[in-house]
Amino acid sequence: MRYPSSVFRHKTHSSIVISGLTFAILFGLNGCSDKTAEQQKRAELAAQAKLAEQQAELKQSAERQANTQRDAAITMHEQASSAKLRVMSAESRPYIAQHTTSIIATPVLNGDWAGAVPPERNRFEKQVQNGIMVAGEIPVSTFAIDVDTGSYTTLRRMLKEGRLPQKGTLRVEEMLNYFSYDYPQPSKNEAPFSVTTELAPSPYNDDMMLLRIGLKGYEQGKAELGASNLVFLLDVSGSMASPDKLPLLQTALKMLIQQLDTQDKISIVVYAGAAGVVLDGAAGNDTQTLNSALEQLSAGGSTNGAQGIQLAYQLAKKHFVEGGINRVILATDGDFNVGTTNLDELIDLVDAQKQHGIGLTTLGFGMGDYNDQLMEQLADKGNGQYAYIDSLNEARKVLVEQLSATLLTIAKEVKVQVEFNPALVAEYRLIGYENRALAREDFNNDKVDAGEIGAGNTVTALYELRYVDAGNLANDKLRYGYNPKTGHEKYSRDEIAYLKLRYQLPDATQSQLLSYPIRADQKVKSLAQASDDFRFAAAVAGLGQLLNQSHYLHQFDYNKLSALTRSALGEDTSGYRHEFMQLIDTAAALAQTQRAPIKKSFDAGDKPFPPEDKPHQQ
Questions:
Q1: Mean pLDDT over residues 579-596, rounded?
Q2: Residue 333 and residue 388: Cα distance in Å, rounded?
Q3: Is the pTM here over 0.85, yes or no?
Q4: 536 Cβ partners below 8 Å, 6+ apart?
Q5: Contact in structure between 251 and 266 (CB atoms under 8 Å)
């Protein structure tokens, strides 16, 4: 059991008093020859000792009473803060909620909090990396697209804090899709996104090729988005009090508010031990009211996120805009630890609301009890994007620069299927998209959930493949069912693969099909001849695979990764690629540190460490 430091001080003081009196008793007994005087002296000193103990107990009791009064004062302050908000709501704006609960409280921090959080308390799901497939056995690869970026920004935070992610927890596709690439703009009159392919030698393994598939959604300015009905679902539990959480969230939403106008409706729901409504359909251009509501938020209590989600969807239905954007934006630092915490139930709720035209975007903040898996899956089921906000720059990127992509879905249920030609391709491996894999038959099933593309989003996928005539195959050739003399004749000698995509328009229920042959003659002879975007995408995927400790990289390391990245920085007007270069250097240094542990134990005792007389022995 733990006690406040003041209790230890009082206990220590009491112990000193009692110990001193005990010493006095012994000293008195040894120094007095008269027995009667000894007994009288002993009785007096014992009485003094008992009085000192009583005084110490009274002092501790007074402190406990003071602590109780302080806790009561805090509770009164919380209730007064909530009451103040209700009074402000009633007297100023009609759309400010009239039933805000008392969860808006003063910041409460765990006494053990010291700014840094042990990484093991966070939850990042491990991915089972895709294996090398034999094109003659399984020629078809099918997956749903992904526009999330959270895995890259959580990695960036970890590296800046001086630690590496756990093995297998990075989603490489989210690292790839954090960056934009110079894919051609599509025409709105055709498909909502363009399709690009590029083929070049792989940097990861000799005698292998790398195929890049890129999608680019059409651009849409904020003025063209139409009316938006946005519900901010904000976590104000006690753990949100640190500067990288609620204060950063408040500033981030103020940035977003600056992009809105009179046709937009904004509601704010907050949740901690309970959920409450702060704003109920405020006008998007009423920045004074919106900012005032955000500034009054403070952190306290546990996390009842499930109740908050239900309340947020109620407001989204209340202010639903036909033909406009209807979206709940969830911002939190962690898990839902009160109320309904079953992941399947939450996902079912989000999926059901998606069917009614209400999407869900998730924004992650801070670390601690952070549930990366929950944030990603909720956004996936809600036809939305999952982003992790680790800085004001990232908030600006997601909520200002890419606001249209964050809010407006231009194509839903987007699936990719690639059929490889066994006459030319012996083996292939999809890099990333492990939790987006679909069965072959799912491609033609419009009821199977897939991914969404927002306005201006880019999506990139990489396949590493080995040609039939290359050596060092990972799999042995089959003895049965394969005739190299006659089997080749039914395949085209000009195509290495056939690419198909299915998508639905936002208001449609039936999918449309796109198809493109990928020709063998489009390859370049060397990696240096590939585009900057191709090489940079390969570098991003390379870092993800190195940190995931992939066993499929045989001729690739941090030195080659660094050289590859530096050759592909391009113009980089936003500086994101140069920042990535710095993260590579940090990751390489941390990885080197982990590979060189101290092998010999050293008992320092009273000696300096490391020893001054000889160098450290590896």
A1: 90
A2: 10
A3: no
A4: 179, 181, 565, 568, 569, 570, 577
A5: no
